[in-house]
């Protein structure tokens, strides 16, 4: 039984959907992370994010704006899920630390 005083909790992503500047900054942070992880120029990935946001800055229709924000949010959440499962597959932790640990082991073997 539900009463009118009980409300449905907001969707966790609603915070980002209602704050486009935060969503934009999070997309730029993801671009920085991917650039570092994939050893590609940071500027190139950030420019791709900027291009999409500038293309959509002239949108007037509220429904189109909402769709663009949801697409950006989907990209962020898909990336987070990918990195989370990637870390689960690697029992040593994240990919970068595992790579560094392997290099350290190789250096120790060379010293012997």
Automatic annotation (TrEMBL):
Residue ranges annotated for the Complex 1 LYR protein domain, each copy included: 19-76
Highest taxon, organism lineage: Eukaryota
Protein name: Complex 1 LYR protein domain-containing protein
InterPro entries recorded: Complex1_LYR_dom (IPR008011)
Region (Disordered): 85-112
Amino acid composition bias (Acidic residues), ranges on this chain: 100-112
Pfam families cross-referenced by the UniProt entry: Complex1_LYR
